[in-house]
Amino acid sequence: MQKINHDEVAVVMVTFNPKLNILEKTLPQLQRCFSLVISDNGSHNVNQIKQLLSSTRTAKLLTHSQNLGIAKAQNEALRYIFKNLKQIKYFCFLDQDSFLTESEILKLCQDLHNLMISKKAALLGPAIKVPFLGKQNVFRRQYQLVPEIISSGSVIAKQMFIKLGLFSEELFIDFVDYEWCWRARQHGYHVFVDQNVFLKHQLGWEKAEIRRGQNIIAAFRLYYVFRNCLYLMKTKQMITAEKKQWRKNLLDQAWYNLVFCPHRWQRFKMIIKGCWAGVKMVHENTNQMLTKGQISTKSMKY
């Protein structure tokens, strides 16, 4: 069995105005053990982030003058690694406020390597542990087949990006990780969770951000949630058999935000704007495909 080495693994992290006290705890171990590439989306404290990385050559900070969105920021990091770090074979994606230990990252990469051979796996992620909520997505099997996972904590082999492409930059944020999972599944690959590894996610959460057992997301995120979900639903990038469940998920999301969350009027406006933007994206995508002759008017269904 091939053993995965440290120099074959790169950790990719996107930052946007991160809490420095968290990075001070997580970055030292990551940059000591692996190649670490941070793609910063125009943070106001980017100089402080740079100082945290100044003591090692194994870390690279890519700075962007504005917020490019998580998809493009991740892709910029991947492009840098493809070009400059030829030895890298596996990528581990971490949010700025989540953490995996050295041994956990190596285990995920090793397990992914084995699952790619035996189960045609595209990516593998840890189970999630969120403060105040305990352990989430705990399964009976060690390697549980799932429809999609969040990118934080997940590991993907370089060869899968070569086969399936990078992340979809038009989504900006939200559903970026899910869309890649669905793309992999549509090409015959599988998505797994390793329940023996738990991601310490959202290290900076506070109890005030949890309501009725669910995290309260920022109001502006609802724009992207509804826009991207509707867009992926209509452009067939979402698994067809699962569209009904995602329609229900959107309704549940709207109900939760408009009944139980603060700033309800602002959340309502973001939902409406997101729905309208999703419809516009579908029409723009359709017009582009018609212009390129990729579809005919007979195949159009709304």
From TrEMBL:
GO molecular function ontology, one term from the record: glycosyltransferase activity
Keyword Cell membrane: no
Xref: SUPFAM superfamilies: Nucleotide-diphospho-sugar transferases (SSF53448)
UniProt keyword terms in alphabetical order: Glycosyltransferase, Transferase
Gene3D superfamilies for this protein: Spore Coat Polysaccharide Biosynthesis Protein SpsA, Chain A (3.90.550.10)
Domain Glycosyltransferase 2-like: 11-110
InterPro entries per record: Glyco_trans_2-like, Nucleotide-diphossugar_trans
Pathway involvement of the protein, from the record: Cell wall biogenesis; cell wall polysaccharide biosynthesis
Domain of life of the organism encoding this protein: Bacteria
Record bears the keyword Zinc: no
PANTHER family: GALACTOFURANOSYLTRANSFERASE GLFT2 (PTHR43179:SF12), RHAMNOSYLTRANSFERASE WBBL (PTHR43179)
Protein name: Glycosyltransferase 2-like domain-containing protein
